[in-house]
Specification:
By secondary structure, this protein is mostly helical. The protein has twelve helices and no strands. The protein has helices spanning about 5-20, 25-35, 40-60, 65-70, 70-100, 110, 120-135, 140-145, 150, 160-185, 190, 195-220. Helix 2 runs antiparallel to helix 3 (about 40-60), helix 3 crosses helix 7 and helix 3 (about 40-60) crosses helix 8 (about 140-145). The protein starts with a helix and ends with a helix.
Length: about 220
Amino acid sequence: MPFSFAELYAYIGIVALLVMIPGPNTVLVMQSVGISGQRAGLFNVFGIVTAVYLNALLSGLGLTLIIMQSAEIYNLIKMLGAAYIAYLGVTSLVNAYKLHRQKESTCTNNSSSQAPDVVTQESCFTFYSKGVLTGVLNPKSALFFLAFFPQFIHPGGNIVIQSLILTILYSLVSVTWYGLLVIFMGKLRHFLVRSETQKWLKAITGTILVGLGIRIALQR
């Protein structure tokens, strides 16, 4: 066993706190489930988990260290991430405004409450790619793999196996937390599908995403 139980508990605790802190991933999953259904949220989760392995791979290849040591590269990645998250927020705000402008029929609320989730194969890839990009372009992910992985890896052991175990644990925590979030939001689906709720959901999550993008761009 490469790690002691105390080390595993400490690592899982740190990862759980990091994952559970509301951020772009949380807002993205909540928005996708609320607007497009549980299947859309699940593809977000698949994308977020994929980003975990991509970040671990980049860290293993030493690219994360290079990025952290180069202020220009780090700032570029940070600004790209901030711009993408802000773009998602602006798009959501625009859609909220369009809903506000639309004339609602008298039977909209009744019919929309029974509306099925329509997620095509193309849109599944869209939700998946959003999860990947939101995870990869978040500078905090790179900082996590750079700052915490070395603290738990024993130099005398097999570094590849240890890194793989830590990455798998990270992905399992992510799947568990975001999966529960998808289920919770899905329970509210009958309320969230209403046109008026959709408008406010798009507006609120869009505002939060724009705010998160600005915060990432301004953080040092």
